[in-house]
Design brief:
CATH class of the largest domain: Alpha Beta
Largest sheet: 8 strands, parallel, barrel
Radius of gyration: 21 Å
CATH topology of the largest domain: TIM Barrel
Number of helices: 13
Distance between the termini: 33 Å
Strand content: 15-25%
Helix content: 40-55%
Structural class: alpha/beta
Number of domains: 2
Strand order of the largest sheet: 1-4-5-6-7-10-11-12
Number of strands: 12
């Protein structure tokens, strides 16, 4: 399990959110780069930078600062906050970000995620904020998406997400412990790497997360921040815990996993849904190209025709992934 050190940036300063609300932000210091360097010195495995201005207010004043932090440090930097478009995602990746994290935009526009995962393999992390009933919250916990954990995880896995960042919407992470059942359910849904989005109050919480296992799969990492800076434990303490080998026979008590839809069926449904949507879009662009030709707009028609090829390519990629998955399953059955 890797440790992702969180640095929240707001108005050019590093801040702490006591209850997850930007209105309650507490300024820690005016030097986010210095805070990142202190995390690196302490031994963090990765840096998790969060642009709160972009996330909450669509204000991108911190982007140049984030670019400079990425350029200044050697540790891989994962950037989150307000990444809502392919152009912004690509800009941050081009600036040298190890990975980017997309939240609301990924939930509301799955096709964009498929395209970005195809064009930037290994770079796209999807963040899901989960309510106790497993519905996904969006827009900073202010909206309900009408979509639920299992279906979203399967779609993001089929799209090729590098990892899923799992957060518990509305929980006060310094008071309430992590929902172990939620994390077990998530581990049981898909094979994509899973990162706990913070919320360990003390080392025992970290041990509990470290012990979770489903079919030999464990959490890839956990985001840490204020629990370290408030002195509850150190990165050195945390690294000793995550390096521990959990007892092979010990089970996490009282965390039964809810029955899930068969993974192969759900993944196939998500993939074929994407194929259908891409083909429908391609057909619409092809019809538009015909209309442009009839109007004498040859160059515009050619542009539409090229767009058709992009939709076909995306559909074909999804079908090939589905075929490979099916072949792999057949080989395992043999």
């Amino acid at each position: 399990m890797d440790l992702y050190a969180r640095v929240n940036i707001m108005e050019g300063r590093s801040v702490r959110l006591p209850h997850g609300n930007v209105a309650d932000a507490i300024v820690l210091d005016a030097d986010p780069l210095g805070r990142v360097e202190s995390w690196i010195e302490a031994g963090a495995d990765y840096i998790h930078l969060v642009d709160l201005d972009a996330a909450a207010f669509r204000d991108y004043r911190n982007r140049s600062l984030i670019d400079s932090i990425i350029a200044a440090v050697d540790l891989p930097v994962q950037v989150a906050g307000g990444i809502r478009s392919p152009s912004e995602a690509e800009r941050i990746i081009d600036a040298g970000a190890w990975r980017i994290v997309m939240g609301t935009a990924a939930i509301e526009d799955q096709n964009m995620v498929w395209d970005l995962c195809r064009d930037h393999p290994g770079k796209i992390v999807v963040s899901v904020d989960v309510r106790p009933d497993r519905e996904i919250a969006t827009r900073g916990w202010t909206m309900n998406s009408g979509r639920y954990l299992e279906e979203v995880m399967i779609e993001m896995s089929s799209a090729g997400a590098a990892a899923i960042l799992l957060a518990e919407a509305g929980r006060d992470a310094l008071v309430e412990g992590p929902d172990l059942r939620l994390h077990l359910e998530a581990l049981s849904n898909v094979d994509v790497p899973l990162i706990a989005g913070g919320g360990v109050r003390h080392l025992d919480d970290l041990r509990d997360l470290r012990r979770l296992e489903v079919d030999d799969r464990r959490l890839e990492g956990v985001v840490v921040g204020r629990e370290v800076t408030s002195g509850r434990f150190t990165i050195e303490d945390a690294k000793k815990v995550v390096a521990e080998i959990p007892p092979a026979t010990e089970e996490v008590p009282n965390v039964p996993i809810a029955p899930a839809t068969p993974k192969s069926q759900a993944k196939a449904e998500a993939a074929l849904k994407h194929v259908a949507e891409e083909l429908e879009r391609g057909a619409a662009r092809a019809r538009l190209a015909v209309s442009r030709i009839r109007s004498g707009e040859i160059e515009t028609a050619l542009g539409e025709a090229l767009a058709v090829s992009g939709h076909l390519s995306s559909a074909n990629d999804a079908l090939m992934k589905l075929a490979r998955r099916h072949a792999h399953r057949d080989n395992q059955d043999d």
